[in-house]
Amino acid sequence: MTLPPDDPQRRELNDEVHARPPGALDCPTRVSYLALRIDPADQARETALLAELARQHNQPEPQSSDTHYTADMGSFRLRWERHTEFTRYMIVATATQTDPFAAPAISLLDDAWLAQLPGHTMNAVHLALVAGNFVSGQEGLLAERYFSNNILIGAQVAGGSGAAFTDWRIRPDGFSRMLVYNGSMTALQAGRIVQRLLEIDTYRVMALLALPVARELAPFLLRSESELAEVTNTLINATDPDEPRLLQRLMGLQAELENRESLNNFRFGAAAAYHDVVQRRIAELRERRLEGLQTFKEFTERRLVPAMNTCAAVARRQDSLSQRMARATQLLSTRVDIGRAQGNQALLRSMDRRSALQIRLQQTVEGLSVAAITYYVVSLVKYAAETLAKYVPGVDSAVVTTLSIPLVGLTVWLLIRRVRRFVERDGED
Fold first, then answer.
1. Helices then strands (H, E): number in the chain?
2. Strand order of the sheet with strand 176-182?
3. Helix (H) or strand (E) holding 157
4. Can you say how many angstroms the Cα of residue 413 is from the centroid of all Cα atoms in its chain?
5. Which one, out of 99, 174, 215, 266, has a CA that is 20 to 30 A from the CA of 272?
């Protein structure tokens, strides 16, 4: 069967659902996990370092366009993924010691290579996957042995097939710890549970990036709201000379708010998306309560949800202030435009009056011009008639001069009128 040609993006979009599948994890396993925020300008250097590590272990090198890479380096397996805002590494190795945290998997990597990694650490976790069912009542022993007697967060996971524990505290080595018991999970189930736990921890931290932004933005919003209220209150009784000054003040305030919005909208949107991922991953754990411990869901609802609510409230407040400021600016701009329109109308009326006066003045000048030119021409005619009367008998210079007055006046008037029409027609063109 012959099908029409594939869309250029068909296979890429189809394979997206299969990208970054969780790897199977046997027991006992030790996992070291890193999540790094890396500047886009350093991504090429990161890929080059990853290729260098692959060459050292005779493994295929990642391509510059790759966003995920998995390789078996012999003593450990490396899993690398690049996301929008961060890159994460999973180093997986078999656990052989009685203490699953005694020799973390990341110790199998060269320190010099690790030191060259660009970016900043957002999350670092040592996770141990051990075989066996967790015995209820041993939480205190776990906290003492592996978590420095810190309060534990934990629950049965995968519907009771395993159990997971953490204190979500950063230890002196820069890593936090997670301990997962595999009672009856398959290797793929264990891999999925481990990936979900690490994603919950990472996206929890990434979501909280918006909290400092919200805290910093809150005083600015309070100050801007007060200034907006002051401007709108002044606007009620403002006079025409006050309006341009108020408009300039309001536009400056709106420009500053727009700048803050453009900087913060992505962070608030990303926080909401990360929080949604956290909630979904917790639901996928299928937790069951262990007596005396907070579950992962309870801990995040108690700690993370209030922070996300704060961020959402600040984002809504910022959006509401932007809308109110836009309405105030539009209202003030309308008042200024109306004032300008009224001024323009008064100016047009004044120009009309001046034009009428100029026309009347022009007509007066034209009349005077006719009289002056007529007088001048008649004077010439009189001079000519007097001269002619000396040489031609019967010619009365007074009669000739008198008869020439209306003729000359009419001729001059017609000529001036024609010139005026010519000038007016030329001006219209």
1. 9, 8
2. 68-72, 77-82, 87-94, 29-37, 120-131, 176-182, 162-166, 153-157
3. strand 153-157
4. 74
5. 174
